[in-house]
Amino acid sequence: MHSRTARFLRISKNGLFGILVLAMVFGLAPASLAESSQADKSAQGQGKGASKAQSKQQSKRKELMAKYERAQKLHKELKSIQQKAIENNPDLKKKRDSLNQFMQSVLDKKLQGSSVDTERMKAISQKLKSGSSNMTKTEKQDLITEYRGMAKKYQKARQEMMQDKEVKQRNKSLRDEMLEAMKKENPEVESMLQELRTLEASLRQERMKMKQQQMRQQQQQKMQQQKKKMMDQPESQ
User: Fold this and answer.
1) How far apart (Å, rounded) are the C-alpha atoms in residues 234 and 190?
2) DSSP alpha helices (H): ranges in the chain?
3) CB–CB of 121/151 below 8 Å?
């Protein structure tokens, strides 16, 4: 499990620590940004044959994607600043590597005995991105269901790892040093972080609204189908 988990998290000089700095340390959630993008693309796909009511979502989707792209740009810039800070501060690199290893060991323990197969998750993700157009609706849904089942357990283990007392203590120790080092590389770091926090919160809220709207649409479609079925029954008798 250790090697599989390591590859899935892509732990390297910028791997899990990149997530740590921009998520755990600064209160951001890069994963949700990716989910926002996926939700937006899903909505766009549904919109191809959408009704007039659904077409009203076009401008909202454009706005959402613009926010997502801006958040991605900020995230990339902050990771670059972080890497420069680490390169110019050897002690930070040592602390980062040590924390990476410790977080990995805690996460592995949390995943022990679970059905999570991170290699399979990675393969499904890649297949959905590159070959989803060639799948039937049932095949695609089966893959999504399988992925979500493992992802739910993985996220639970990851959240538990990030709430581990020693992880939080060691992270806090590193946080101040990292932030100060990043400020020396770029004085605009704090304003960039604040903008990214605001964008991430907005994307999370929009994603929730989109999911709720999709659920309402599904319920309406189900009711319409049931109504049509009831109306067709006398004709079949």
Assistant:
1) 68
2) 2-9, 16-19, 30-47, 52-55, 58-87, 90-111, 118-131, 137-162, 165-185, 189-236
3) yes
List own/partner pairs for 151-156 with CB under 8 A and 24 or more apart.
151/121, 153/111, 153/114, 153/115, 153/116, 154/111, 154/116, 154/118, 154/121, 155/31
> Could you read off the pLDDT of 44-92 as tens digits, one per residue?
444 444 565 566 667 878 888 899 899 999 999 999 999 999 999 999 9
Q: Give the pLDDT confidence of 178-203 residue by residue, as tens digits.
A: 999 999 999 999 999 999 989 988 88
- Against a cut of 0.85, is the pTM above it? no
**Phi, psi for 115 (deg, rounded to 5):** -95, 15
Q: Find, among 152, 107, 144, 156, the residue nearest to 7 by Cα.
A: 107
Main-chain dihedrals φ then ψ at residue 136, nearest 5 degrees: -75, 165
Residue among 59, 38, 23 at smallest CA distance from 196: 23
Query: Which residues neighbour 184 within 8 Å (Cβ) at sequence distance 6 or greater?
Result: 85
